[in-house]
């Protein structure tokens, strides 16, 4: 979404300048709330339409005010998305988002938007997710969050504590560097391309979980597959049945190294991983074409 630019002489007006200056931040807030780049763009459009009606002279902190509008719009959309996900065919995975390579080097930022973390956030209620994202990812004050979600600061503190405890119990135990993720991904890629079953078993953790998202449009496992042997056989068997040329190329998605899969020269999906102790514990394959439209057409985001 490109916000319209209202010119004053040769310069954009103050409302536009402020919105553009904070656009990456607002997109990241909306995306971490929703797990969908398409819906995040819609939220930014709604935020822009409300922002241009604001009397800027009455706004003390414009950044905080924009974050408040964005969060409220994202909360509204999140509640409608919950109903959509209930009718979704097979596992629902976040929409992959191309990110600039330097995002992967910021380990805290990369972890906050990783596919694994986005799936953990899916287990929170809408209000818990808003409070957690604003507090943990963007260090927004409890008073400001309270004004945003329309609850008392004391209630927000309790929600934040509950959400943090919930997330900590499910997030990866350690923050993994981009180089460690790349190493595991490269071992996985080599084994997959050569059909090396033992090579896959070496890089997959015994308790690895595979999730495929075809959205009912592309073939994908309708339920998560658990266990290294089952996942390795699924991967090798899938390649063996395919008769068309397949390539696995490196990319950076959600702040972390990933694989861009081409089938017969066309984008087939994005494969992201979760790494712990140098082995893959989570494997996420997004094939739903509705979630891949930005993979090749968009410039990688810097997020903040």
Instruction: Report the β-strand fraction as a percent range.
Output: 15-25%
**Could you estimate the helical fraction of the residues in percent?**
40-55%
Radius of gyration: 20 Å
- Lateral arrangement of strands in the main beta sheet: 4-3-8-7-6-5
Termini separation comes to 17 Å
Number of helices: 14
Q: Briefly note the structural class of the backbone.
A: alpha+beta
> Stretches where pLDDT falls below 50 for ≥5 residues?
1-10
Largest sheet composition: 6 strands, mixed
pLDDT average, as an integer? Answer: 90
Number of strands: 8
Order of helical and strand elements: EEHHHHHHHHHHHHEEHEEEEH
Q: Tell me, what's the shape? A: globular
Helices, strands, pairings?
Layout lengths: L6 E2 L2 E2 L1 H8 L1 H12 L2 H15 L10 H25 L14 H5 L1 H6 L2 H7 L4 H12 L4 H8 L3 H16 L9 H17 L2 H7 E10 L11 E2 L1 H14 L4 E8 L2 E8 L2 E11 L2 E8 L6 H5 L7
Parallel strand pairs: 3-8
Antiparallel strand pairs: 1-2, 3-4, 5-6, 6-7, 7-8
Helix pairs in contact: 2-3, 2-4, 3-4, 4-9, 8-10, 9-10, 11-12
Keywords, separated by commas or semicolons:
304 residues; alpha+beta; 6-stranded mixed β-sheet; 14 helices; 52% helix; globular
State the gist of this model:
This protein is α+β, with helices and mostly antiparallel strands.
């Amino acid at each position: 979404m490109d916000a319209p630019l209202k010119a004053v002489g040769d310069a954009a007006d103050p409302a536009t300048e402020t919105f553009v200056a904070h656009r990456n931040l607002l997109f990241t807030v909306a995306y971490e709330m929703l797990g969908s780049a398409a819906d995040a763009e819609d939220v930014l459009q709604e935020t822009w339409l409300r922002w241009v009606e604001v009397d800027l002279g009455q706004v003390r902190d414009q950044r905080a005010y924009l974050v408040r509008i964005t969060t409220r719009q994202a909360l509204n959309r999140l509640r409608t998305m919950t109903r959509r996900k209930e009718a979704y065919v097979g596992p629902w995975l976040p929409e992959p988002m191309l990110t600039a390579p330097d995002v992967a080097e910021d380990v805290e930022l990369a972890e906050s938007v990783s596919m694994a973390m986005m799936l953990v956030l899916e287990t929170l209620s809408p209000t818990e997710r808003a409070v957690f994202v604003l507090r943990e990812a963007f260090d927004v004050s409890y008073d400001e969050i309270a004004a945003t979600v329309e609850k008392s600061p004391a209630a927000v503190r309790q929600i934040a504590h509950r959400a943090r405890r919930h997330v900590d119990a499910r997030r990866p135990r350690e923050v993994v560097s981009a180089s460690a993720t790349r190493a595991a991904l490269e071992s996985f890629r080599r084994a997959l391309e050569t059909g090396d079953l033992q090579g896959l078993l070496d890089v997959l953790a015994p308790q690895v979980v595979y999730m495929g998202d075809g959205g009912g449009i592309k073939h994908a496992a309708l339920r998560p597959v658990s266990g290294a042997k089952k996942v390795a056989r699924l991967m090798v068997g899938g390649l063996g049945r395919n008769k068309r040329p397949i390539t696995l190329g490196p990319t950076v998605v959600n702040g972390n190294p990933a694989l861009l899969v081409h089938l017969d020269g066309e984008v087939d999906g994005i494969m992201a991983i979760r790494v712990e102790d140098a082995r893959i514990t989570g494997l996420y394959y997004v094939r739903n074409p509705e979630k891949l439209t930005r993979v090749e057409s968009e410039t990688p985001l810097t997020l903040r």
